[in-house]
Amino acid sequence: MSPVFPMLTVLSMFYYMCLRRRARTATRGEMNSRRAIESNTRALPINVEIVQYAKEVLDFSSHYGSENSMSYTMWNLAGIPNVYPSSGDFTQTAVFRTYGTWWDHCPSARLPFKRTPTTFCSQDYVELAFEEPVYPTAVHILETYHPGAVVRILACSANPYSQNPPAEVRWEILWSEAPTKVNGPQARQFTPCIKQINFPTNLIRLEVNSSLLDYYTELDAVVLHGVKEKPVLSLKTSMIDMNDIDEDEDEEKYGCGMDALNKQFSLVTLREWPTNGYFDKLPYELIQLILSHLTVTDLCRLAQTCKLLYQHCCDPLQYIHLSLQPYWARINDASLEHLQSRCTLIQWLNLSWTGNRGAISVSGFSRFLKVCGSELVRLELSCGHFLNETCLEVITEMCPNLQELNLSSCDKIPPQAFNHIAKVGSLKRLILYRTKVEQTALLSILNFCSELQHLSLGSCVMIEDYDLIASVMGAKCKKLRSLDLWRCKNITESGIAELASGCQLLEELDLGWCPTLQSSTGCFTNLARKLPNLQKLFLTANRSVCDTDIEELAANCTHLRQLDILGTRMVSPASLRKLLESCKDLSLLDVSFCSQIDNRVVLELNANFPNVFIKKSFTQ
């Protein structure tokens, strides 16, 4: 090979890096919503790089903020930065609902699905639309507080602004990595090395995992760099990770696209093997136990090796618990159709994040449940935007043994559809976070589902009278152990009194951002006296929480593990010491923006109570 070509490649890469550096170091005034950088056409085949901020937030799994506000919501990711390069806790940023591992250690925590691939660790996501479809060359994520949560960046082939939706929607991973611990909460611009793809995109998805963070991560803006014409030569040859090469080869070998996955599900033609080796000598149950450690895709691949293993891999006992969430981008009607014969005994099913943009139809979902729903005990459908009233009706008819139903962020389900849930009298867990459930339907559910133990109504903005809801809970739901009323706008001391009197088994209660509750009415002291089993209590952003409330908690709720009193002005260091001395199991105490608790007090409390994570947020 002539030495000229490597030299040209090196020069091209050098010039490209110079352009990138120039783009990064431009002043904010130069970085408009869309900008083109002209380059030397003789040196590079790509002569224009477009730089654009997100135009619109299309979808997300959760956010800290309210549905009727911009503070701490995902919608803050649209447009130019509001905060960056400043660091700290700012309301103008995008914040997800959870952080750390605290939510995994409370009474409402759900058991994880086994067989989840180790490469899938995403907990939340947000999807962003940009003005111009481009071939991505870089993605900049402006993180302003506790960075390090982003674990995956994906690009979609569908143009959200096109009048003609494509026949097939493709998602390509631009970058992925396991969660990492970042030293310090300071702002940063995160620019991972992304993979080159063969289609233009203006739809980018960020997936996050906040389990290693000490507090909520805050994102300010996302910048997409790209070119209009498909690059002829990859300019990142020297920066390719060998692990990425292995993954690509693995995808080519096994076929990880939608069609290939469906072919694996439906494979029936097998090679003739003269013998199955030593597997013929193993007990059937032992082989089943060995295969139970494989992921779904590994089972599909193994089924192609011989008839014996095909029989084992298609045994319905291998699909008692099935999570398809890690494969959300590849699951469609055909996938469910191919899985039907294997899932006749399924008890746990996770279809969260799947089926959007037409991948799963109402008829496809209904056909699957009619065959596989009779034994279902747990059904996870978080962010399933294909769901409608027909789907809920099918669930209630086909799943008579259902005990757990998660409809978190299914915001496309019409309000009247939730009436069907009342038919499932065996329900023990119901998650309606960020849904449009209305009061009449919820009252019906509470009246007929008296076995409920865990109920999430966080950010349900269509409920008009939470006092009435709390009163019915107290009368009908005596077994309730956890209740999420995050950001309910109109519950008062009357509703709290009814709730505390009737639901005395409560171990977890989230009253964060409930502005109508006032300590002066005695509602918090009443809670402390009536609910001695409390392990988690969130009174986030209630400015009226005072020393009396904290002292009542110390005296009556000695099993308390997590307490959030962010934003109160009325709590003193002395009452916190009493609480920490009394509640030996306390592991989380959030005193962010508590005016009487300064950093000196936090340091002192940390020194005296080292087993408690005491959080004090700040703004610069």
Structure description:
With 620 residues, this protein is α/β, with parallel strands linked by helices. It has three domains: 49-227, Galactose-binding domain-like (Jelly Rolls, Sandwich), CATH 2.60.120; 319-463, Leucine-rich repeat, LRR (right-handed beta-alpha superhelix) (Alpha-Beta Horseshoe), CATH 3.80.10.10; 482-619, Ribonuclease Inhibitor (Leucine-rich repeat, LRR (right-handed beta-alpha superhelix)). The chain is built from 16 helices and 22 strands. The protein has a twelve-stranded parallel sheet with strand order 11-12-13-14-15-16-17-18-19-20-21-22, with helices on one face. Strands 1, 2, 3, 4, 5, 6, 7, 8, 9 and 10 form a ten-stranded antiparallel sheet that branches. Strand 12, helix 8 (362-372) and strand 13 form a beta-alpha-beta unit. Helix 10 (439-448) runs parallel beside helix 11 (466-476) and helix 14 runs parallel beside helix 15.
Q: Report the CATH C-level class of the largest domain.
A: Mainly Beta
The radius of gyration computed from the alpha-carbon positions, rounded to a whole number of angstroms, is 27 Å
How much of the sequence lies in strands comes to 15-25%
Q: What is the count of structural domains? A: 3
Number of helices: 16
Look at the structure and name the CATH superfamily of the largest domain: Galactose-binding domain-like
